[in-house]
Amino acid sequence: MSELTLKANIDRPDDFYADLLAAHEGLPKAQSDALNARLILVLANQVGDREVLKDALAAAKQAMHRDPARS
Amino acid sequence: MTKIFETPLYPYERSADQDAAEPVRHPVVVIGAGPIGLAAAIDLARHDVPVVILDENDKVSWGSRAICFAKRPLEILDRLGCGQEMVDKGVQWNLGKVFFGDRKVYDFNLLPEEGHHRPAFINLQQYYFEEYLVNRARALEAEGKPIDLRGGSKVTAVEAKDDGVLLTVETPDGPYRIAADWVIACDGAGSPVRSMMGLDFVGRVFEDNFLIADVVMEAGFPTERWFWFDPPFNKGQSALLHKQPDNVWRIDLQLGWDIDKEKEKKPENVIPRLKAMLGEDAKFELEWVSIYTFQCRRMEKFRHGRVIFAGDAAHQVSPFGARGANSGLQDTDNLIWKLKLVMEGKAPETLLDSYDAERVHAADENILNSSRSTDFITPKSDQSRIFRDAVLDLAEHFEFARPIVNSGRLSVPATYDGSPLNGPDVAGMPDRTRPGAPAVDAPIGNGWLLSRLGDRFQLMTIDADAPDRIDVEGIEVERLELSTNDDPSGALAERYLGDAQAGIYLMRPDQHVAARWTKFNEAELRSAVNTATGALSNRVETPD
Ligand SMILES: Cc1cc2nc3c(=O)[nH]c(=O)nc-3n(C[C@H](O)[C@H](O)[C@H](O)COP(=O)(O)OP(=O)(O)OC[C@H]3O[C@@H](n4cnc5c(N)ncnc54)[C@H](O)[C@@H]3O)c2cc1C
């Protein structure tokens, strides 16, 4: 089926980013974490394709910053 | 009133073996008269293979333990001759509710597929399940079948040799020894046989405890499965309520890891917990209470020469998903026909290694499913709890999240993909009846397909020609002639033909598919029977 796209694909990225921050605005950490988890699940369902989801998990892991001070 | 599980059903009686000068030799000895040992012995006796069953006890399971029995085991019990009693007594259910905190997040209907004789599930106390098996064993004995059930007979030593096994049996009259060509060890999760043979049992212990209570109450709860995540009456934990026959309700309350088991089991501590759940005014009586730590483990190999392990002795799963007894019955279903062919010299001893291959594969599937349920119910980290709660919150609003909620995936039989016994397949025929799969039931005339299958190799033809009987080196293959006209509902065609116009299925004695074609070819059939009985050396080359 489709492949994971790692090229820029979001229309007006600044607006999306602002929406993302706005959704978390004023939430305590626990609620922000819960919101993120729900968002991941909603988006994963939209993707659906298990191969694409695996590639997305791998891409997210690959970009992990290996600075010990941040681990 | 004395409960059935308090009544000795097979009290110790002195056996002639105890007075013999030399250990008497038996073709098969089954150790353990739990559900799995009883099923194994019944299957053997039905086929006129003499069998002795030894159990240290003389009663059925103390308290209920297993309550949920799935369709495939019921079909196996039909073959053994006691499925109907179970279904008549059992409670059928299709509806379930899932709660999170104090909200109901959704309900579901299992909506079983039409065109099957047996329901998707019944709930039945394990003590009834075992009682009906004991009754069946007694009925076979009365018909003159060679089945000898010995209570009060504890196996205390096992000496395995290349050509048999020597057992020491402790009784109220002191110990005696018997010999066996074959031993089937069904002595439960703590298997003393396994320990006596120094064998492994590796896996995972879940750091959690569950209070399991069966209560008798006249309650207005419907016949549904109710599951709570983090309910107000058991904060941070889970709970389950499920109905059994005779107004008995199963309640599971998760307790967490750091608890005092003996204290938690005391009625003065159990009753307030149940009242918090059922309401202060609920009138109930405690039938049975126990505390479990769940484990998922299995032996590396189920066959050790002449000693073959089945049921909980071979593998143990956490109860979420009802896979213990259900999968144990599939073990003996898989084993007995193979053992019989080997004992008759019609198949090489190596056929028994396919029991190992197929049932280890099934055990791994069960352990995977039951570990995943346990991980959902008891999140192991902050992050997994965040995701678990996110799934539940979403499930309240959106249908897409409901299949992710995992309060136990109910038991379905394993398909033996990749089994060395599997023969040819045909592209375009239905996936669910591929080689290795258990037969899927369908209505045939006034009856059911599965009642016409089993116990022997059969060639099931659907709108196709084939000889009525073929002998493949001593193995009779009998034709079962069917037509799509036998089933106006179309289920037979949908389940067995798919894109094909006609179908020929080689069925194993355990009702699993061995091979399939769209037209009959004798050389290919012979080759497939040889493959399915482990007689690979006799393999016939198939023409191309
Ligand atoms: C709370 C709970 C809920 C469950 N729910 C379900 C469910 O819904 N569905 C399901 O399918 N499964 C369920 N199970 C699992 C199910 O109870 C077991 O899988 C099943 O009992 C296994 O049967 P068995 O015959 O292998 O072993 P057991 O039932 O343990 O029987 C072993 C027998 O061996 C005998 N024995 C032991 N040692 C010796 C010896 N040295 N000599 C002679 N005899 C001996 C014992 O007396 C016993 O009779 C549940 C289990 C629990 C604890």
From TrEMBL, chain A:
This is DUF2783 domain-containing protein. It comes from Stappia sediminis.
UniProtKB/TrEMBL annotation, chain B:
Residues 27-366 form the FAD-binding domain. It comes from Stappia sediminis. Keywords: FAD, Flavoprotein. GO terms for molecular function: FAD binding; oxidoreductase activity, acting on paired donors, with incorporation or reduction of molecular oxygen, NAD(P)H as one donor, and incorporation of one atom of oxygen. The keyword Flavoprotein applies. InterPro entries: FAD-bd, FAD/NAD-bd_sf, RIFMO-like. Its cofactor is FAD. This is FAD-dependent oxidoreductase.
